[in-house]
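Morning. Coffee machine broken again, so started the prediction first thing and wrote up yesterday's gels while waiting. Chain of 156 residues, entered below exactly as on the submission form.
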Amino acid sequence: MNEKTIHTGYLAWHFAQAMGARLEKELRALGLNLAQYNALQHAERQPGISSADAARHAGITAQSMGSAVGSLTERGLITRSPHPTNRRVLCLHITPDGSRLLRRASTVVRQVNEEALAILEPQEQATVHRLLHRLVSHLNPGALPPTPAPGATPDS
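Came back before lunch.
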């Protein structure tokens, strides 16, 4: 089988699997798994997000996210509050301890990313990042942080 007969999606899946395994291993040292890291990330990025929406954005099952949120809640890293208009939905909020752990975990994620991409030249890394960002924006835009409006400043 030559390089051209291997589909891009197949390669992307294998890359994602390899990255996921590396991230799981490194995050374990902080007492986190990928689902928990995603829950913290989405709760910080979108305070009040539901567990179901966080699961959709993270590309995992609602059950996996529910388990992650449950353990984070028990550890005091996330709180859940009733939705203002839908009593069946609980809104997620990251705690100060959760924010501190997320910052540490984000450093670990950044290091894993740098190690995995070290085989590429900086310009190639930037190109891969830009192309993957476009693809994810197209296929699962909720997985990415909101982008500021053109001309907006960080404080606006």
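Residues 96-117 form the longest helix (22 residues). Going to sketch it on the whiteboard this afternoon.
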